[in-house]
């Protein structure tokens, strides 16, 4: 570990109850960094995006992130009253520390909020990216008007968030809502994130849809079974959904297993939380109705009680800016914005 920005010790989040005003949102992903000024109506200004280049290590990435944030402030012409940070966990939201996010190798116990407060001189809060996205969709996206919401993001991994009685659910230590790690196949595929076997992410994340399809193609070649997927390398989840839609039998089998497992998992979540709306986001949902319709059918047909029949299933509406909108929403939520 260098003695640069990482040398600071973790400090508690600043007390700024009653904050009103624009937020500088910092979204830290494994592949991209995004920053913007977000105003309380949910509008973003001065959006900046660049590759994370995580191989450079935390010192260099944080320096570029902070500079990118300053570029957003300059482009927007709006001074922030606070900073909100969205990042994958594990993290300690109360202390403002990134504990050991697997999508950022080498980022161990990074006091991100203390570093950010020193950089910008305003209160800073940190939240899990999927939890932040859930609040963003609740306040400004597909969940507007609901009181109870489940959000599931299906992307490189699978994350989630829950809103109960219009309040974001965080759990005892702030890491609640790990909806992607409920077990769907006991003893099944190994999950690199949670280290268990058979969780939803191990089957239905974009990464694992592609992995399952690749394995199926290898078996098909050995059996002399034709598939258009054999001509694509490396495979992606989008390749699988497109080939399935075009009538490729092997791709259809992989896709069918995906929607069945997602549908069963979502049915369990609907049974537990009885939400007004369940929102699906993330890159895999770009397949649209091909994903949503069979999942909705499973929930309606297998869910318990009236709520399973009437719960709204929606695709997320905030798209690629959900991370920055979520980071800002968390800042308003935690710092007392009405």
Report on this model:
This protein is of the alpha/beta class and 338 residues long. It has 10 helices and 12 strands. Helix 3 (129-140) crosses helix 10 and helix 6 packs across helix 7. The longest helix is centred in the last third of the chain and has 25 residues, at 249-273. The protein is globular, with a radius of gyration of 20 Å.
Structural class assignment: alpha/beta
Largest beta-sheet details: 5 strands, mixed
- Rg over CA atoms: 20 Å
Q: What is the number of E strands?
A: 12
Short overview:
With 338 residues, this protein is α/β, with parallel strands linked by helices. The protein has helices at residues 58-76, 112-120, 129-140, 201-204, 206-223, 237-245, 249-273, 289-302, 305-310, 322-335; strands spanning 23-28, 32-38, 44-51, 82-87, 91-92, 97-98, 124-128, 149-154, 158-164, 167-169, 277-281, 312-315.
Features:
about 350 residues; alpha/beta; five-stranded mixed beta sheet; 10 helices; 12 strands; about 20% strand; globular; disordered N terminus
Write the layout of secondary structure elements.
Blueprint: E1 23-28, E2 32-38, E3 44-51, H1 58-76, E4 82-87, E5 91-92, E6 97-98, H2 112-120, E7 124-128, H3 129-140, E8 149-154, E9 158-164, E10 167-169, H4 201-204, H5 206-223, H6 237-245, H7 249-273, E11 277-281, H8 289-302, H9 305-310, E12 312-315, H10 322-335
Parallel strand pairs: 1-4, 4-7, 8-11, 11-12
Antiparallel strand pairs: 1-2, 2-3, 5-6, 8-9, 9-10
Helix pairs in contact: 3-10, 5-6, 5-7, 6-7, 7-8
């Amino acid at each position: 570990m260098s003695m640069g920005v990482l040398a600071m010790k973790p400090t508690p989040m600043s007390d700024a109850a009653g904050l009103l005003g624009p937020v500088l949102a910092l979204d830290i992903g494994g592949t991209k960094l995004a920053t913007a000024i977000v105003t309380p109506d949910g509008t973003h200004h001065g959006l900046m995006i660049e590759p994370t280049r995580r191989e450079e290590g935390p010192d260099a990435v944080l320096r570029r992130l902070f500079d990118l944030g300053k570029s957003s402030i300059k482009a927007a012409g709006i001074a922030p009253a606070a900073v909100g940070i969205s990042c994958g966990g594990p993290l300690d939201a109360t202390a403002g520390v990134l504990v050991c996010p697997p999508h950022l190798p080498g980022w161990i116990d990074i006091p991100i909020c203390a570093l950010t407060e020193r950089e910008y001189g305003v209160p800073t809060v940190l939240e899990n990216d999927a939890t932040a996205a859930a609040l963003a969709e609740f306040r400004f996206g597909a969940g507007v008007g609901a009181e109870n919401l489940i959000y599931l993001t299906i992307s490189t991994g699978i994350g989630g968030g829950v809103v109960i009685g219009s309040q974001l659910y965080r759990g005892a230590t702030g890491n609640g809502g790990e909806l992607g790690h409920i077990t769907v196949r006991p003893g099944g595929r190994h999950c690199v994130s949670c280290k268990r076997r058979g969780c939803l992410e191990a089957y239905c994340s974009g990464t694992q849809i592609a992995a399952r399809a690749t394995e199926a193609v290898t078996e098909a070649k050995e059996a002399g079974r034709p598939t258009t997927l054999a001509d694509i390398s490396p495979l992606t989840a989008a390749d699988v959904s497109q080939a399935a839609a075009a009538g490729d039998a092997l791709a259809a089998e992989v896709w069918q297993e995906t929607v069945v497992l997602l549908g069963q998992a979502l049915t369990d979540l609907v049974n537990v939380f009885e939400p007004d709306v369940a929102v699906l986001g993330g890159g895999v949902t770009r397949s649209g109705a091909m994903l949503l319709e069979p999942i909705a059918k499973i929930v309606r047909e297998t869910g318990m009680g009236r709520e399973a029949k009437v719960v709204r299933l929606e695709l997320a509406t905030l798209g690629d800016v959900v991370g920055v909108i979520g980071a800002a929403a968390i800042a308003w939520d935690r710092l007392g914005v009405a």
